[in-house]
C-alpha cells in the first residue's frame, strides 16, 4: 500500500479482505512499526474481572464486620460443614428476611443456582390435592373404603388411578 501507492479500498480489493482490517493494520503499523503487526507468542493474557469493591472507610469495614458477626450468631453450625444443600437452603430461606440474600449465600457458601433449585423443590408435592381428597373420602366412609372403592371415587372426581398414593396414606382394603 505504501510502496505501490494504492488506496485502502484498492488494497482491500486486491487482497480480497475487508477495508476495515486494512485500516486496523495501518493504524497498528503507524503506532508500533512492523513489530506491532507480528503475532504475539504464548497464551493471551486473561482480562481481569471486576474485583470485589473494598470498603472505603473504617466505618464501612466495621459495618461489614458487624454484619458477619450477626450472621454467625443467627446461622447454626450445621454439624461442622457437613450439612446438605437442602438444609443450607432451609437456613437461608429462614434468614433471608433479616439479611441480604447474596450476603447469606456468600457466608454459607451456597451457590445461587443451587439455592433456587432446592427452594423450588423444598415444599413441592404435586399430589397434595389428591392426598387430601383420599383422606377426605377415607374419613367420610368411616374408614371402611378400601383402595378399590377409593379409586372408583377418585375416578368420579376426575382423577385416574392413584394406586401409589394408597400405601402412603395407609389406606388398606378391609
From TrEMBL:
GO molecular function: sequence-specific DNA binding
Occurrences of domain Insertion element IS150 protein InsJ-like helix-turn-helix (ranges): 4-44
Spans annotated as Disordered: 40-59
Membrane-spanning intervals of the chain: none
SUPFAM superfamilies with a match to the protein in the record: TrpR-like
Entries under InterPro entries matching the protein: InsJ-like_HTH, Trp_repressor/repl_initiator
One Pfam family, short name: HTH_28
Protein name stated in the entry: Insertion element IS150 protein InsJ-like helix-turn-helix domain-containing protein
The organism of origin for this protein: Periweissella cryptocerci
Amino acid at each position: 500500500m505504501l510502496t505501490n501507492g494504492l488506496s485502502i479500498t484498492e488494497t482491500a480489493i486486491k487482497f480480497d479482505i475487508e477495508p476495515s482490517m486494512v485500516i486496523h493494520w495501518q493504524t497498528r503499523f503507524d503506532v508500533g512499526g512492523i513489530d506491532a503487526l507480528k503475532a504475539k507468542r504464548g497464551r493471551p493474557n486473561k482480562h481481569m474481572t471486576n474485583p470485589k469493591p473494598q470498603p472505603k472507610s473504617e466505618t464501612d469495614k466495621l459495618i461489614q464486620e458487624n454484619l458477619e458477626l450477626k450472621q454467625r450468631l443467627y446461622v447454626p453450625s450445621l454439624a461442622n460443614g457437613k450439612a446438605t444443600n437442602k438444609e443450607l437452603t432451609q437456613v437461608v430461606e429462614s434468614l433471608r428476611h433479616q439479611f441480604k440474600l447474596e450476603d447469606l449465600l456468600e457466608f454459607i457458601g451456597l451457590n445461587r443456582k443451587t439455592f433456587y433449585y432446592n427452594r423450588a423443590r423444598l415444599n413441592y408435592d404435586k399430589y397434595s390435592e389428591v392426598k387430601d381428597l383420599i383422606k377426605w373420602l377415607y374419613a367420610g366412609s368411616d374408614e371402611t373404603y378400601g383402595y378399590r372403592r377409593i379409586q372408583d371415587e377418585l375416578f368420579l372426581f376426575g382423577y385416574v388411578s392413584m394406586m401409589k398414593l394408597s400405601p402412603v396414606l395407609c389406606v388398606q382394603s378391609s
